[in-house]
Specification:
Elements (H helix, E strand, L loop, with lengths): L12 H11 L8 H12 L4 E4 L6 H11 L5 E4 L6 H14 L4 E4 L3 H7 L5 H4 L1 H17 L4 E3 L16 E3 L5 E3 L7 H10 L64 E3 L2 E3 L4 E2 L12 E4 H6 L1 H6 L5 E4 L17 E6 L6 H12 L5 E6 L3 H9 L4 E3 L3 H9 L3 E2 L25 E2 L1
Parallel strand pairs: 1-2, 1-4, 2-3, 4-6, 9-10, 10-11, 11-12, 12-13, 13-14
Antiparallel strand pairs: 5-6, 7-8, 7-14, 15-16
The protein binds iron/sulfur cluster (SF4).
């Protein structure tokens, strides 16, 4: 397609902005090939780079590139944290499509040594990890081009829901999103129609594939990108924020209050809030009375959720449905209230609940051993001394019982009412 909207350099900023608006009116929503062809030949005149994650959907954009010009530079950010399957897929797709100019970008080894010597920065500060492993290497390269092409789509997240075909960035570059209007079904149909090889992890439930530590399987009905940085207030790696000299917006610091499997981790679940929709919430502990009142809606909700059982609740009411929940939170409202222990034992021993059984509320160090004996596997802990005891492994515990639980605990000798002194482990 030919048009007089080609960009003559230099342009005044307002004129370029107007041209972008006009460009976005030129193409049918689904004319991805038209958008890309025009961007390469008319708008940017080959002064363009393609950026691809070689993830679950990448084959579509790269196939379009192969139809237009196999020599176009395609950048893959080799962060050093990818799944081995992704690295294999880069080779597979490159060969299959005959791409002649795939360039692997790696982080500066000096940055990695300085900021992430143990390779664990993703866990404590994912923004900085993305910054040194993705944003900086890409920024340096993209500075050599008038624009770049991405595979982003509107359906992927709410934040991407207004994505146009063409964007003008504040550093006066043009970003092209040929697949902006493609749906998940369109992407899959395109892959099938053109016989494109799938990412090896796609069949295992990965719908958006980034670095291995920050990517999880996505449940049916979730946003495709819900598996990225799960549990963190982070949706993008930073390379897609506007170029304004700033790095990615910092994620809100997430306090790690959930003690599970021997360490404190960011809690993927949140508490129920007024106005929440039982049919649509995700990773939320739904109070028992709310579940009972909206049972059909909750059971029809496709997202992972939890159940909150407060001290006065009767677990018997929901026994048959416990298996629907990925997490059951048992409330311990105060130290002297023992009803949570009974609830936990019923859940684990009578109803054989096998998911995460967590203690919430007034969780203190003296209770944790008892809670574990009752089947609790995770603890939400804010009490500083208890947190310290858990972190340092100095929890006071008891291994002699006058009220044994299950068949494994045996009363001491013939006088089970005599408790031995606590032991520190
Ligand atoms: S996605 Fe995760 S591992 Fe990859 S660069 Fe970002 S924080 Fe680091």
């Amino acid at each position: 397609m030919s048009t007089n909207l080609a960009f003559d350099v230099p342009e005044s900023a307002p004129r370029r902005a107007l041209q972008i608006v006009a460009l976005n009116g030129l193409f049918d929503e689904m004319d991805a090939e038209g958008v890309l062809r025009h961007a390469v030949s008319e708008v940017l005149r080959e002064d363009v780079a393609i950026v691809s994650s070689f993830g679950a959907d990448s084959a579509v954009l790269l196939h379009l590139v192969s139809l237009i010009d196999r020599r176009l530079p395609v950048y893959f950010l080799e962060t050093g944290k990818h799944f081995p399957e992704t690295l294999t897929y880069v080779e597979t797709l490159t060969r299959h499509l005959g791409l002649a100019n795939v360039r692997w970008l790696r982080p500066d080894p000096k940055d990695v040594t300085r900021f992430d010597p143990r390779g664990e920065l993703w866990e404590s500060d994912p923004d900085s990890c993305c910054h040194i492993r993705k944003t900086e290497p890409l920024d340096a390269e993209i500075a050599n081009f008038g624009g770049w092409v991405t595979g982003r789509k509107r359906y992927q997240t709410a934040e991407r829901g207004v994505l146009p075909h063409f964007e003008l960035t504040s550093d006066d570059r043009i970003k092209v999103n040929p697949l902006a209007y493609f749906s998940d079904a369109d992407v899959n149909a395109y892959k099938r129609a053109h016989g494109l090889p799938e990412h090896p992890l796609f069949a295992k439930g990965y719908r958006s594939i980034g670095c291995a530590p920050c990517t999880t399987v996505v449940a049916e009905g979730e946003d495709p990108r819900a598996g990225r940085w799960r549990g963190l207030n982070k949706k993008e790696c930073g390379i897609h924020f506007d170029f304004n000299g700033a790095i990615a917006k910092p994620v809100a610091a997430v306090e790690k209050t959930l003690f599970k499997d021997g360490k404190f981790i960011a809690d993927p679940f949140r508490a129920w809030a007024e106005g929440d929709d039982p049919a649509a919430v995700r990773y939320t502990h739904i109070p028992l009375e709310m579940f009972v009142a909206n049972r059909a809606a909750v059971l029809g909700n496709p997202h992972p959720n939890g159940l909150l059982i407060r001290a006065g609740d009767a677990i018997e009411e929901v026994a048959a449905d416990l298996g629907r929940f990925a997490s059951v939170a048992v409330e311990f409202p105060k130290f002297s209230d023992g009803r949570g222990y009974t609830t936990a034992r019923l859940a684990s021993e009578r109803y054989h609940y096998a998911g995460e059984l967590r203690a919430v509320g007034d969780v203190l160090m003296d209770q944790i051993t008892l809670m574990r004996r009752c089947g609790i596997t995770a603890f939400v802990v804010v009490h500083p001394a208890t947190r310290k005891a858990l972190e340092t492994g100095t929890l006071v515990t008891v291994n002699r019982y006058y009220q044994p639980i299950g068949s494994a605990e045996v009363p001491v000798g013939t006088r089970p009412f005599l408790r031995k002194a606590p032991e520190t482990v």
